[in-house]
Each structure stands twice: as structure tokens, then as C-alpha cells.
């Protein structure tokens, strides 16, 4: 038990908020002064060090959190095993509180750190502040982990006995103590070339931004969500993923706010669909917890023999949005411009990379890790394995998204493509998703010269599909 009035260190991690923060709330209830701290640990994370877009978001989120904490946030950088011990020793704190994280490297680091602190007589109190249900308590009746989403969601989430806990309110009159650290600028999270300024036009990182985004979605986006979420030019997406990843809002607050919207007479079908998306986030975290090699190892071992191609030029054209397929290129350019990509389009560009180009899903995973503001190890790994066909509950190998028909179906007026590919903005919708089929006269009138203003297709769809099916069929 913490004695006298010694301070408590609250270690912020992927929970950059005041409201519904179990570790902060529990520390506050003790009545002891609180040292809030954040450690940028790029050493322990290894190859999963934050990508460039995520680092920009973290910088902004830490600034917002520091403001919420009356400028009392202690910032440090270095291996947490050493830095946290230093803070405890310097401050004479006798206990540390944190919310648990679930990436394999964090689990390993935190277990070692907790053991070491406890052996030194320091109390460690940990809580669940990131997930609706923790993966160590989520498994089938036979004790094995779920590999299929539907039974996972049905058995864990549906039914009153499985209702996620209600969110806590923000603690009032926090007793905060400032402890020496470095400045936010000293963490060097921002790039030297200010490309990040374009991201700031699209986002408001921080707890206030997260709650504003939730409010806007529930007011204007959730109605029609079940169908509208498939159309990238519509407003039926929550865009809460980066806020949830950095813990600027808890999944419990999002869940119960959506449920409130679904009360009798409310948006039952749309709301249920949205809640199931929160379930997919949980499912991905469960997969990563039970299969810690998920970011690098095929869950279906037969894919270890898959004949992936190596084509540096094709990969570069995919990354730059220069494949010659408008819906694919629009998605990749949206990603570069905003740090985000619509989920339907993520599936289309992912399928194109691994099936039409036959490039390893690791290339897509790594590019998304660096460029997405919502880059999340569990979601990113599970989703790329799903689209490649090698993961849990994966898309069947013969499901190859046709970017032309996908564009025609989900961007029928071409608003999304025209937004991100302005060189095609005058192209009539009949040929917008397949400009190579346009008569020369139409191309001239649209101001498009294929191969110059906009690239010709990098591959022929029918040939690349046949090649993919042959490669996938061999695995059976």
C-alpha cells in the first residue's frame, strides 16, 4: 500500500485521454498526487516502431493531453524498462498505474517491467482501458482461440450478460504533480520536411477531437451506415479508428453511445452493423494476442509456399497511385493526402496488390504502417492476412476484387475518383473507371492522353486474375 502522501506515477500509453481512463481514475481515487508520464520507447518496439503518419498524430495527441493535464505531463524517451524506473526513483513514488496494451512486444516488455518493479517493492496496478473484452479471457469452450469472426462476436458480444462495462466520467480535481522531462519538440516526432501539414487539414487529434468525431458520426453518419459505409464518397464512416488506436476515446464510450442511438425507434440495423465493426477490432486484437507472429507469419501454413512475385516498379506504382486503375489509384492517393483510406477501398487496393500484382502482403502491410494515421498492429496484420487469403476467416482465394466493377458499383457517379484523380475529372462516368476503353474523341474532349496524363493499366485484369487463380489453386 502506498504510504504517506507519496506520488503515484500514471504511465500513459495507448490511452491518451482523461475520460474513462481506468488507470487514471483508480490512481485519483487513492487521494495521492499523480505524476502523469509518457515514454516514447522506440527501442523496445523493434521493427514496429511508429510509422511517420502515426508519429505526427502522436505529437498532436500528446500536446492535447498535456493541455488537459494542466501542462503537467512528463515526457521522456528511451527504453521504458529504464526510463520508468528512473521516474519512480527520482520522484520517490511507491506505485505505478497503467492500462494494459496487447501488442506482443508490449506484453513482453510490460511483464518484465512489472516483475522488476515489484521486486523493488514498487506496487504495480494495471487495468483494461483499450478493449471491450480482454483476449486472455476470450476463447472457445474448448479453451482454444477463435479463428472465425461470427461465433467470436455472437458468443462474446451478443446478450446482456456480455454487455461491455459502462464508461467512467472524467475524474474531477485531479491532484497532479509536474516531474521533470523533455519538451514535446525534443521527442522529434515531426518530420523535418513539413509534409504533415496536409494531414492537419483533415484531422483533430486528441480527446476533444475524438469526442467531436463520435458526436458528428452519430448525428450525421450512422443513419444508413449498413449500406452507405461501402460508398467512399458518402459520410457513412465513423473515422474513429485513429482516435481509438491512440486511446483518445475508449471503445466502451463509443459502444454505449451507439447503443443509446439504437434505443426503441432508433437505428437498429445500422447500429448493429456499426457495433460489429467494433467487434472486428476486438477480433483482430484477439488474433494478435493468441498468434503473436501474425504480423509476419501466415496463419494458414500452406501459404508459406505461395509463389509471390518481386517487382519493385509495380510496387512503386501501386504506392504512388499510378496503376492505371482509377479506384485503386484514388485510394492510394487518398492515403498519401490524408493519412487515411476508406475501408471498402482498402479491400480493393489490397486485393489488387496481392492478387492482380501477386506481390507479398508484407509490402502492403509495411506501406500502410508508415502512411496510415490509424496504423494498428492488430488491425493491419489481420486485415492484410484476410485479403491475402492466408489469415483467419480469410477471404477465399478465388475472390479477386475487380477494380473496374467495384468502382462502378461503389463510386457510380465518380465523385471519389474525381476528388483524388483530378486529371480524370472531365472524363464521362461511362469511362471513368475504365478510361482505356474510351474512344479517342472522348479522351481528347476530356483532356486525357493515356500514358502521359494518366497511366495505362499496369496489368491486364483477365490475365492477372487467371495468374492469381492458378497460383492459389496450386496451394490446395
Automatic annotation (TrEMBL):
Keywords of the record: Chromophore, FAD, Flavoprotein
Domain Photolyase/cryptochrome alpha/beta: 6-132
Pfam families documented for this protein: DNA_photolyase, FAD_binding_7
Gene3D superfamilies linked to this entry: 1.25.40.80, DNA Cyclobutane Dipyrimidine Photolyase, subunit A, domain 3, HUPs
Names of the cofactor(s): (6R)-5,10-methylene-5,6,7,8-tetrahydrofolate; FAD
The keyword Flavoprotein is assigned to this record: yes
Domain of life: Bacteria
SUPFAM superfamilies attached to this UniProt entry: Cryptochrome/photolyase FAD-binding domain (SSF48173), Cryptochrome/photolyase, N-terminal domain (SSF52425)
Similarity field: Belongs to the DNA photolyase family.
Protein name (database record): Deoxyribodipyrimidine photo-lyase
UniProt source species: Candidatus Nitronereus thalassa
